Amino acid sequence: MAEPSNLQHAGRDATAEDLHERLARVQLLLLDVDGVLTDGGVTWTNDGIEQKTFSIRDGLGIRLWQQSGGRTGIVTGRSSHIVQLRSEELGIGIVRQGIDDKLSAATAIVTECGLSWEQTAFIGDDLPDLPVVLRCGVGVAVADACPELVAAANLVTRLPGGRGAVREVIERMLKARGSWDGIVRRHAAVRT
Ligand SMILES: [Mg+2]
Fold first, then answer.
1. Which SS3 state, helix, strand or coil, does residue 160 take?
2. Taking the domains of the chain in order of start, what are their residue ranges?
3. CA angle, 101 as apex, 100 and 103 as ends, to 5°?
4. Which residue of 28, 38, 79, 179 has the fewest C-beta atoms within 10 A of its own C-beta?
5. Residue 36 CA to ligand 1 centre (angstroms)
6. Could you name the CATH architecture of 16-191?
């Protein structure tokens, strides 16, 4: 875990222009699950089945990101079949569950993808995400993240986890690379 002094993240006080450049460089989006792709709630049925709720808008955002050439990966401390199912539905090929050390797992993914940390964004909500947020070119805290993660992040979303935070970040990355307007135009063209 990072020492408090390491919270002087290079991008924490970055200008809007610097953030735009950082967003435009991202090729790999890594995501925590609970509190990021969900609102952090977990429901158990009487049969012991775990249930989570995902945002369909986040899902479309992930598809659009991947269609634009971006890569997506999941790094989560817990482990559940639902996450595997949701990942398969969205075509997320990189799924690391039951991860205690997220920095090590993220480091391995970045290396396997042949990318750099500057080309990587990570969205988190709680303390286990802190070392990865500090390391990434774009470290993101969702709006309702713990205060330490908010303080460390390059970007804090307007929307909370499970309610569009991932979509918000993806839109910002696609806008930064100049891809978003074309995506909207293609959708408009389909309907006319
Ligand atoms: Mg979490």
1. coil
2. 16-191
3. 150
4. 79
5. 6
6. 3-Layer(aba) Sandwich (3.40)
Q: Is residue 118 over pLDDT 70?
A: yes
CA 179 to centroid of ligand 1, rounded, Å: 29
User: Do 35 and 126 form a contact (C-beta atoms < 8 A)?
Assistant: yes
Q: Which helix (H) or strand (E) holds 60?
A: helix 56-67
CA distances from 46 to 43, 51, 80 (A): 10, 11, 17
Where residue 15 falls among pLDDT bands split at 50, 70, 90?
Answer: confident
pTM: 0.91
Q: How far is the CA of 108 from the centre of ligand 1 (A)?
A: 20
Grade residue 191 by pLDDT with cuts at 50, 70 and 90: low
Q: Residue 162, class by beta-carbon neighbours within 10 Å (0-12 exposed, 13-18 middle, 19+ buried)?
A: buried
